[in-house]
Amino acid sequence: MSDIDDIFDDKKLKQSIRKAKVKSILKIIGVVLIIFIIVSLLNILVGLNLSKKQYEKNDAYVKLSIPNGYISESNTIIGFLGGTGTYKIAKNMNGKPVILEDKNSSFGILPPINYSVLNGGGYHIASQWPVSFWENGYKKMLFFHPELQYKEYKNDLADIEKIPDGKLIEMAISFDKPYKVTDLSIIQNKLKPVNVTWMWLNEFTDKKMQEYQYEIDNYDAKANGVSESDTIGLSLPMAHNGFTYNPYTQGYDEIVDTLNKSSLPEHKALYDKIISNGKTKIEDAEILGVIVHGTKSELKQLIDNPLIKASSIGVIVDPLYIGEKR
Fold first, then answer.
1. Which end of the chain, N or C, is less surrounded by CB atoms within 10 Å?
2. Strand locations in 145-285 (E)
3. Does the pLDDT of residue 7 top 60, yes or no?
4. Are 236 and 100 part of one and the same domain?
5. Residues facing 312 on adjacent strands
6. What pLDDT, on a 0 to 100 scale, did the predictor assign at position 124?
7. How many whole angstroms separate alpha carbon 88 and alpha carbon 75?
8. 76 and 187: one domain?
9. What angle do CA 135, 136, 141 make, to 5 degrees?
């Protein structure tokens, strides 16, 4: 009987050990699953927070570097403690979104390797103005600072006849001198019938102005100018029933805040200068130029306008609606 009891005891012991192992494995699996879920949730929360910060940086870059520019679409893939994102940069052409470029970005503590190929570019032929393009083929504009004396000024208004009829045209206009922001409504009236959509503010660091002066003194006459990406300004609301308002007070504070959010050193330098010198009050703020939208026939009416020192064509598109004037 003792042998039989021993056999049964061995079976019970083995069964108990087997059950204990199964329970231990299940417990380990449960703990691992709980840890995995917690880590995954934490990673998602961290990823979303990092993604938000990266979007703010991208948004700051677009707002500060592309007049009337905005992010029209943004997508994010979150990985481990980081991720990648894609976004589209667009301009508003009288209600019609025009996609300029598709951008990639990576973010996080362990950002994935991000490889991208850009198709934008341009060319510069001797004795001609340089031409730069956005990735999707639209031209970039040039401005000319009215407080600097250039050897030559770009005058795309003189070539306006070369553009086909029925197109909506974006044009950068540089003034003959700085004008007060408080005179915005007067400026808009003097530039009718085109639609003024953006104003260029006189906000530069001393270092940047010295760089522009050096280029004027040492480079070819047609190798100068201020790229639209190097300008700071405010988008203007479309006029309704002939009435518009000056957005400077609210918009300027937003610009200063956006400069602080930007990751570009030149934006940080300008922010430091503004904070050091004090924000420019509306009665002291100056406009150096504007961006206008109009048809060929409307822009032709700006030829020989005394306010205009230089003009540079940018995006050209078909109107949003057939028969649309602006």
1. N
2. 168-180, 195-201, 226-227, 233-235
3. no
4. no
5. 172
6. 66
7. 9
8. no
9. 75
pTM for the model stands at 0.82
Cβ–Cβ contacts within 10 Å for residue 5, how many?
9
Q: What is the average per-residue pLDDT within 15-27?
A: 82
Q: What's the token pair of residue 126? A: 């001797």
pLDDT attached to residue 247: 79
Question: Where are the alpha helices (H) located in the chain, listed in sequence order?
Answer: 2-65, 184-190, 206-218, 248-261, 265-277, 296-300
Q: Quick one: DSSP state of residue 140?
A: P
- Go through the chain and tell me how many residues it has: 326
Confidence of residue 22 (pLDDT cuts 50, 70, 90): confident
* Matching residue, tokens 């059950």: 19
- What's the pLDDT band for 1 if we cut at 50, 70, 90? low
Domain edge (last residue) among 94, 118, 142 = 118
User: What is the number of domains present in the chain?
Assistant: 2
Q: What is the enclosing helix (H) or strand (E) of 109?
A: none
pLDDT digits (tens, 9 = 90+) for 257-304: 999 988 889 999 999 999 988 888 888 899 999 999 999 999 999 999
- Of 33-42, 113-122, 190-199, 234-243, the poorest mean pLDDT is in 113-122
Same domain for 299 and 213: yes
Q: What are phi and psi of 285, to 5 degrees?
A: -70, 145
My answer on whether 78 and 138 are in the same domain is: no
Given the structure tokens 């922010």, which residue do they identify? 271
In a domain, 239, yes or no: yes
pLDDT of 320 strictly over 70: no
Say if residue 15 is in the same domain as residue 144.
no
CA–CA distance, 241 with 237 (Å, rounded to integer): 12
| Residue 19 to residue 49: CA distance in whole angstroms | 44
Any domain includes 322: no
Angle at 294 between CA 292 and CA 297, to 5 degrees: 135
Q: What is the pLDDT of residue 2?
A: 56
Write out the two tokens for 222.
């047609």
Same domain membership, residue 114 and residue 25: yes
State phi, psi for 104 to the nearest 5 degrees: -115, 150
CB atoms within 10 A of CB 103: 18
Calculate the CA 16 to chain-centre distance. Answer: 67
CA–CA distances in Å: residue 313 to residues 59, 99, 317:
25, 17, 12
